[in-house]
């Protein structure tokens, strides 16, 4: 799945309307440039492409502070919201994806109801356990990985990753069942975006030609 699409759609949705630099600033605030492909060029490209695809509506609102074309603000459309929630749900169950997929999903999981997130996470555990079983049909955890040569270390790593992933997910399920966090429909959610003009202590400080557009 496209992590950058989920991150950008989620950031725009949290603001209501946001220009490209606000989206970039939010993603850097979350550290997404460290754990995903959310680099300035990919962020601005995703905004432009999703506007063409009807997932975002582009508003030209004011002249650029750099004297160029008008600054563009983006707003998520109904089609974009459908895509956002599809990607979000997929991110919470897709156990066989890169870590950035789950990281993005965790960042937005409170946009879903508590009951749905619990159901999705249980689905994730079930999928991990099923995948683990396919590996252990030919490999016994705790045995000597060397029986398969150095390739056995790969199988050993996969099994350990599955076990730790399932354990962590069960812990998250327990915390959510115990009342952790504010999910959709439960009240005022945690604000994870920067306000207009608020300084970002985690900004890279690297300028991009489209920061003012």
Please give a structural write-up:
The chain is mainly α and 213 residues long. It contains 8 helices and 4 strands. The chain has helices spanning 3-15, 20-29, 32-35, 40-52, 78-93, 99-108, 114-136, 151-177, and strands at residues 18-19, 56-63, 70-76, 147-150. Strands 1-3-2 form a 3-stranded antiparallel β-sheet. Helix 1 runs parallel beside helix 6 and helix 5 (78-93) crosses helix 6. The longest helix has 27 residues, at 151-177. The two termini are 28 Å apart. The relative contact order is 0.16.
Can you summarize this structure?
The chain is 54% helix and 10% strand. It has helices spanning 3-15, 20-29, 32-35, 40-52, 78-93, 99-108, 114-136, 151-177, and strands at 18-19, 56-63, 70-76, 147-150. Strand 2 and strand 3 form a beta hairpin.
What's the helix and strand layout?
Elements: H1 3-15, E1 18-19, H2 20-29, H3 32-35, H4 40-52, E2 56-63, E3 70-76, H5 78-93, H6 99-108, H7 114-136, E4 147-150, H8 151-177
Antiparallel strand pairs: 1-3, 2-3
Helix pairs in contact: 1-2, 1-4, 1-5, 1-6, 5-6, 7-8
In the predicted model, the low-confidence regions spanning at least 5 consecutive residues are: none
Structural class: mainly alpha
Rg calc? 20 Å
The tally of strands reads: 4
Number of DSSP helical runs: 8
Strand order of the largest sheet: 1-3-2
Largest sheet: 3 strands, antiparallel
Mean pLDDT figure? 85
Judging from the principal axes of the Cα atoms, what is the shape? elongated
Q: What is the percent of helical residues?
A: 40-55%
Strand content: 5-15%
> How many angstroms separate the termini?
28 Å
What letter string, H or E per element, gives the SSE order? HEHHHEEHHHEH
């Amino acid at each position: 799945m496209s992590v950058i699409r989920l991150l950008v759609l989620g950031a725009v949705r949290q603001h209501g309307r946001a220009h490209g630099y606000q989206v970039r600033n939010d993603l850097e605030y979350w550290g997404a440039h460290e754990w995903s492909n959310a680099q300035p060029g990919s962020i601005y490209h995703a905004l432009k492409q999703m506007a063409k695809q009807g997932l975002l509506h582009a508003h030209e609102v004011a002249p650029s502070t750099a004297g160029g074309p008008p600054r563009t603000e983006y707003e998520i459309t109904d089609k974009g919201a459908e895509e956002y929630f599809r990607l979000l749900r997929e991110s919470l169950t897709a156990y066989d994806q890169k870590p950035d997929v789950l990281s993005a999903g965790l960042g937005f999981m409170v946009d879903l109801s508590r009951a749905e997130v619990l159901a999705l996470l249980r689905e994730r555990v079930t999928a991990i356990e099923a995948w683990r079983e396919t590996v252990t049909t030919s490999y016994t955890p705790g045995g000597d990985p060397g029986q398969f040569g150095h390739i056995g270390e790969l199988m050993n790593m996969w099994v350990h990753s599955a076990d730790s992933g399932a354990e962590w997910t069960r812990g998250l399920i327990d915390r959510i069942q115990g009342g952790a966090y504010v999910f959709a429909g439960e009240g005022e959610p945690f604000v994870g975006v920067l306000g207009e003009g608020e300084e970002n202590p985690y900004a890279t400080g690297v300028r991009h030609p489209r920061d003012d557009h």
